[in-house]
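Worked example 3 (structure in, sequence out).
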């Protein structure tokens, strides 16, 4: 069994449940702000993971977490592992997670390591740390996953340290292009980041095996987004090879989704877009799962009064309940969906939708996770009032 170390994004819990959902809770272990995944020799598919920034090969568990000892280990061991690398100037970087060391101390250790490598006859440049861990951009810019790159990752894991090497990094340019270059965008319906859309799709799909018909080719899943807006979720599902089905109340949004999917040109097998009110529509075509960012209510740039907030919460709550009831009538027990619904930040913490307390009565069970409390799965930026709570449901 091989193990991969996944360096998680800004909100590590979201990345952790994404991995739990895809690989199963027993295959995933939280290691500080990272995750260790038993991959069974399967490659962790970085391109479809929204919550993982870098993938590393596990090199060793070191039975201590003292920085001086770790530095000594690197100095003594790294030079002898460089023989298999091609000739040329090596680029080496250190990414440190969960240790009480400053970038200055890390740079000093890097310099000591450089000396020991030079003494063994190789030339090397150390990528300087301005933060304890190198950013994704630094990893890419310095070609740390290339033949002459080596980014060593040290993660505090209780009394021990995980030592790993970065082998793949998220393609931030591709995410930015999907986000910013698509022809139709609309700030009014919110800008769902493609990485979050991927997490939503992965949580919706879970570990459902792709069904096979008589041919050897797997029959792709169809992902339905009943509040499809400009189609960010459908774009990401299409890139994962799923058929996509989108509906939205507003004809303009349906046109936007269509234009964005055409622009993406993913080799999607089937793409269907229709106008429809999620609270009452009959979805005519079959679908396998739902992945959606539902109606979020109006955006707020400053904290609203309690009366205004209650009014918005009430509206959103009603739409969500009606949608879930409508869906329950058209799906079978076990049907799975992942929704991003609004949760509002207040000085007392997040205010959650009331409907989430009566899911049982509406006909759904909320999926819990081993690696996170489901109530903590709220994607938010520090200055935002409206966060997005990720809810994974199964029809009872
Ligand atoms: C937050 S946006 C979703 C944005 C979307 N994830 C995207 O990628 O652009 C919510 C969408 O729900 C739609 N909507 C609101 N009420 C609806 C309803 N009852 N049925 C279907 N769509 C609805 C809005 O038109 C809007 O496009």
């Amino acid at each position: 069994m091989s193990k991969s170390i996944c360096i998680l994004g800004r909100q590590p819990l979201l990345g952790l449940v994404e991995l739990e959902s895809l690989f199963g809770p027993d295959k995933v272990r939280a290691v500080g702000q990272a995750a260790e995944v038993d991959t069974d020799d399967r490659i962790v598919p970085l391109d479809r993971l929204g919550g993982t920034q870098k993938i590393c090969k596990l090199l060793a568990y070191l039975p201590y977490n003292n920085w001086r000892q770790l530095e000594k280990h690197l100095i003594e061991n790294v030079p002898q592992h460089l023989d298999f690398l091609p000739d040329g100037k090596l680029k080496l970087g250190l990414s440190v997670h969960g240790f009480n060391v400053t970038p200055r101390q890390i740079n000093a250790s890097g310099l000591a390591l450089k000396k020991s490598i030079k003494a063994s006859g190789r030339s090397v440049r150390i990528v300087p740390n301005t933060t304890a861990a190198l950013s994704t951009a630094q990893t890419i810019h310095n070609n740390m996953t290339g033949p002459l790159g080596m980014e060593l990752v040290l993660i505090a894991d209780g009394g021990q340290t995980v030592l790993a090497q970065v082998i793949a990094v998220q393609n931030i340019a591709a995410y930015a292009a999907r986000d910013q270059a698509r022809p139709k965008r609309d700030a009014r319906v919110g800008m769902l980041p493609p990485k979050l859309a991927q997490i939503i799709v992965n949580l919706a799909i879970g570990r459902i095996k792709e069904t096979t018909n008589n041919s050897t080719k797997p029959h792709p899943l169809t992902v339905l987004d009943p509040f499809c807006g400009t189609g960010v979720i459908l774009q990401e599902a299409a890139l994962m090879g799923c058929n996509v089905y989108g509906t939205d109340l507003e004809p303009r949004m349906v046109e936007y989704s269509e234009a964005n999917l055409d622009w993406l040109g993913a080799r999607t097998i089937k793409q269907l877009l229709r106008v429809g009110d999620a609270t009452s529509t009959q979805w005519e075509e079959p679908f396998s799962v739902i992945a959606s960012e539902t109606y979020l209510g109006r955006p707020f740039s400053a904290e609203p009064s309690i009366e205004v907030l209650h009014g918005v919460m009430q509206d959103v709550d009603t739409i969500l309940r009606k949608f879930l009831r409508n869906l329950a009538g058209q799906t079978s027990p076990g049907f799975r969906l992942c929704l991003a619904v609004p949760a509002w930040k207040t000085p007392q913490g997040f205010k959650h939708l009331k409907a989430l307390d009566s899911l049982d009565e509406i006909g759904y069970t909320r999926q819990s996770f081993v690696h996170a409390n489901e109530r903590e799965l709220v994607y938010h930026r520090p200055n935002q009032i409206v966060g997005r709570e990720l809810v994974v449901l199964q029809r009872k």
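Notes: Residues 208-216 have pLDDT under 50 and may be disordered. The first strand starts at residue 3 and ends at 8.
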